[in-house]
Amino acid sequence: MVTNTATTSTSLPPVTQEGIFGWLRTRLFSSPLNALLTVLVVWLLLMVVPALVEWLFIKANFNATNAQECRESGGACWAFIAEKHRLILFGIYPYDEQWRPLLASLILIGVIVCSCVRWFWRPSLGLLWIVALGLVGILMWGGIFGLSYVENDRWGGLPLTLILATFGIAVAFPFGLLLALGRRSEMPAVKAVCVVYIELIRGVPLISLLFMSSVMLPLFLPEGFSIDKLLRAQIALIMFAAAYIAETVRGGLQAIPKGQYEGADSLGLSYWQQMRKIILPQALKVVIPPLVGIFISLFKDTSLVVIIGIFDLTQAAKTAVADAAWRGFSAEAYLFIAFIYFIFCFSISRYSQSLERHLETGYQR
After folding, report:
1. Angle 332-318-168 (CA atoms, 0-180°, nearest 5)?
2. Which of 265, 287, 306, 317 has the fewest CB atoms within 10 Å, measured from its CB?
């Protein structure tokens, strides 16, 4: 009996299925609709990007001494930013003392960066925050160590935005955790209070809370007792963010399998021990992306305090644009503060992605 052995040769995939051509075909030209959209997007980029680059950089004026020179160049007037950057960054804080809010901002950013590094995740981090916040208060208010006293009505710009966002996140997060636990509580009174608070706060826009804290809250305070306008705005931001954090964390708690709760009960752990050691760590890992989204939104929402007269970064930019000698360069001013917001928000987003990868928050099969 003769056996015929057939040899089969493995053939390479067509050129159109691999390499750059394969990528273009599968990603950009996989269907007539995708091909049309790709062509439209490329056409739009060719129309917009060259003109934008020309306005931003090629024709831009970086060293003009007045507005007329900037207008003659036909491009962006970055000389306006060079002239007004201290007003935009520090508001109406005394000019000769602006090194103090600059140093306070660097301290806040430094302690936030340290909090993002796992090596600092130890009990001493709390002491570091206490020292840092104390230094920020001393620098911003003054009145001791030979520093002149500056009322917080004169705070503004980037330091005020960082203070509102930092304190807002730091206080709203534990408050939101308690609200989430309270909403899932088996005690009817606690659950009812938490549900009413969360639904009431989430049912109104932040602007209304800021108006109420600025206009209506003083009407309910005892005569002769007042709360600072900046503190009222900070409380409104904390209340608003805490309600959204509570709902996000509640979703994470519901995602934890029932067996985790039963296993914690079988170990004889108390309620708070279960939450602290078993349930909450898992729930928080699940909801890292939406929590970071809330933190980014809170950082950007600090710009809304402008409606109650607080001199934040946006209000400082508006004041700089209102200068009659440099009027007409609002685009440059708002691009400048948009770039600042982007740097902070993008950094928060990238850190959250690295934290997700480190903690392996995704479920693998």
Report:
1. 105
2. 265
